[in-house]
Every structure is written in structure tokens, then in C-alpha cells.
Design goal:
With 198 residues, the chain is mainly α. 66% of the residues lie in helices and 0% in strands. It has helices spanning 14-38, 41-48, 52-59, 62-80, 88-101, 104-116, 129-140, 149-160, 178-196. Helix 1 (14-38) crosses helix 6 (104-116).
Length: 198
């Protein structure tokens, strides 16, 4: 499980909170572009207008900082996209749009795959438990096809990320024409609806 932002030393003042936020934002950009091995603390501290001692006080190490960045970005993504078990096609489309707005999380996930070679569940946290319970409830009511709720959620998230920076075929950009994005949203919406149909 990724470390919580600032778990080594919690800021006790608004100024400290602002510093921690600058560190996380600067580290997000640095890790998204260069990964864990290629990231440099000097660039992060310069962009965050702080020093290494402060970064290590908050996060312990570069690895700890990366974990905190991942946790921060995952928390942002979870809160940015509303989950509605009665509209899973709409959830997938909202996730597609979030990937366009915030591509750094997908890039960070790609670096995690390359440098850490994870297996199984990446985030063994309660973040997804309400979603899985909602899917199981809808299955019990006959609204969603049978199957492991976790597998269904993973497939939906994968479909939403088909054009993301993690795709091995095509990477979408917010600069593409609106008609292109709407075409993708429509096929995504229809595909998820067919996937979950009872």
C-alpha cells in the first residue's frame, strides 16, 4: 500500500502544508516524466522551493516520496470520478475524461510496472471496497451479470484506459477534436453496457 502523504512528519502549520503540497506536485511531474530511477531530488526540491532535509523529513526517502505521490494521485482520481453502480458506462466515460485531464497518474502507473514489476492487487486498501460491494448488490438484484465484482471493475477501468498513456496502441490527447473524443465515449459507453448486461 502506498504511504500516506507526509507520513514521516506531518506539517503543523499552513506554511508546512503548502510546502508538502509543492513537494508532491513537483515530485508528481518529475516521476511522471522520468520514473523512480531517473528522478532527481535536486529538481524536485528546486521546483518545490524547499530542501532535501525537508523532503526526507516528510517522506523518508525517494521511494517513500514516490509511494506518497502514488497515494496522492490515486486519492485524487477516486474523488474526481463519481462511482454510480447504476451507471457503470457513465463511470467508464468519466474515467476516460479524467485520464485526459490528469495523465500523470497513468504515467506513474506505467513507471511502476516498468520499475517495480508488481503483481496482484496494487492498492490493497478500502478505496474500492464500497464499489465492489455495490457491484455485488447489483448482481444480487439481477441488474449486472454474474462474475467476480473485482474482475468486472478491473475490466471497466481497463476499457476506460484503452486510449490512455498506458495504452500500447494509441495515446489520446486533450488537443484532439471533440468529435473524436465523443466517438470514443460512445463506443466505450456501449461496450461497458454490453459487458455488464445481465
Amino acid at each position: 500500500m502506498p504511504a500516506a502523504p507526509g507520513q514521516f512528519g506531518q506539517p503543523s502549520t499552513p506554511r508546512g502544508e503548502a510546502t508538502l503540497r509543492r513537494i508532491l506536485d513537483a515530485a508528481t511531474d518529475e516521476f511522471a516524466v522520468r520514473g523512480i530511477a531517473g528522478a532527481r531530488m535536486e529538481r524536485i526540491t528546486s521546483a518545490a522551493r524547499t530542501n532535501k532535509a525537508q523532503v526526507y523529513a516528510y517522506f523518508g526517502s525517494k521511494e517513500g516520496l514516490f509511494d506518497a505521490v502514488m497515494a496522492d494521485r490515486v486519492d485524487h482520481a477516486v474523488s474526481a470520478v463519481t462511482f454510480d453502480v447504476d451507471d457503470l458506462p457513465g463511470f467508464a466515460v468519466a474515467q476516460y475524461d479524467e485520464n485526459l485531464r490528469q495523465p500523470n497518474l497513468v504515467r506513474l502507473i506505467t513507471w511502476t510496472r516498468l520499475e517495480r514489476h508488481p503483481t496482484g492487487h496494487w492498492f490493497d486498501t478500502p478505496r474500492h471496497e464500497p464499489k465492489l460491494a455495490a457491484i455485488a448488490g447489483a448482481q444480487a438484484d439481477g441488474k449486472i451479470r454474474p462474475g467476480d465484482p473485482g474482475d468486472l471493475l478491473i475490466m471497466i477501468m481497463g476499457m476506460a484506459g484503452s486510449w490512455s498513456p498506458a495504452s500500447s496502441v494509441y495515446t489520446a490527447s486533450s488537443s484532439e477534436p471533440k468529435t473524436v473524443h465523443e466517438r470514443r465515449r460512445q463506443i466505450l459507453r456501449e461496450s461497458v453496457a454490453r459487458l455488464i448486461a445481465p
